[in-house]
Amino acid sequence: MSVGQRPNLDQVLDRLKDFQRDSAAYAFRRLYRDPDTTHRFLIADEVGLGKTLVASGIVAMTIDHLWDTTERIDVLYICSNRDIARQNLRRLNVSGQEIAPPDRITLLPRHVRQLQENKVNLIPLTPGTSFLLRSNEGLWEERVLLYWMIREAWSLGNRVSAKNLFQGWITDAAWFRRRLRAAPTEYQIDDALMVKFAHSLELRVNSDEAEGRPDLRTRFDEVADRFRRARKHIPAQDRALRAKMIGELRSILAASCLEALEPDLIILDEFQRFKDLLNPDTESGALARGLFEYQHEASRARVLLLSATPYKMYTLTHEENEDHYRDFVNTLHFLTDEDTARAEGLLKAYRHELMRLSIC
What is this structure's pTM? Predict the structure, then answer.
């Protein structure tokens, strides 16, 4: 099957049992067909009932629905780890679409041109490697990309201190230098994404200055100066500063990369394992918000949530750091995308009546 081929709906739906096919059809109708369509939909079936198969039906119907009106169709699949992604992507790949990039949004600069050439893209992401980036140095490939993008954006030239900084935890300096030299021809960083990243850096510098704190460029130079010479034994303080700086730059790059995506359908699989992604007040939630609210012209991204346990019924005494009722309300708020005060009031009244009846 060629990349991005229009899916054969009958063939895809024939793999589903009757109740799975009905679930997929109803979810698709609510997302795209009804006069009062919703942009977010939750499928909360028990374990073993085939939520991924239902999702594959929705993916197929979505691609078929958008085929004639959308130049490029992006389906994002977000799950908690690479093992789950590897297991489920084969079922979701209903039209032979390209699967890229490899679960890290900060590696997207290597794939943007490929995404632009494809009719359909199936893009797997994991929260831990794409949305939780601060104080984390990431993979050496990410640091190589960052080095070249920072060098271009800030006209660093051939500064040894920057090379030493982005070397991170790699102990073989000669090996890392070879990777740096090879990157311009191997990676072919997308020009538009480069411009977007440089603009994001400028905005961060301006924001720092406006709030009266040392700006990002100044802080970068100060940390880089600590790595003017190569050292085998780096003090713990310098390692911490290096990790914090690289993590901050990775976070900015991730935000720029997410803006380069054009999601039509976003699937959150077993989202209760990364519930912070639904909360815009968290770092990962703020980063993901741009995806969930993406809109191109009159078309807005749809979000499909899958979970056998979207929330727990109550909080046990040993779960003092958890609040399952609040998790339920947050999920409700995310799904309805509006003020849930009235719903919370009804829930409290319902609980009050249940307690009153139990006492009687």
Answer: 0.82
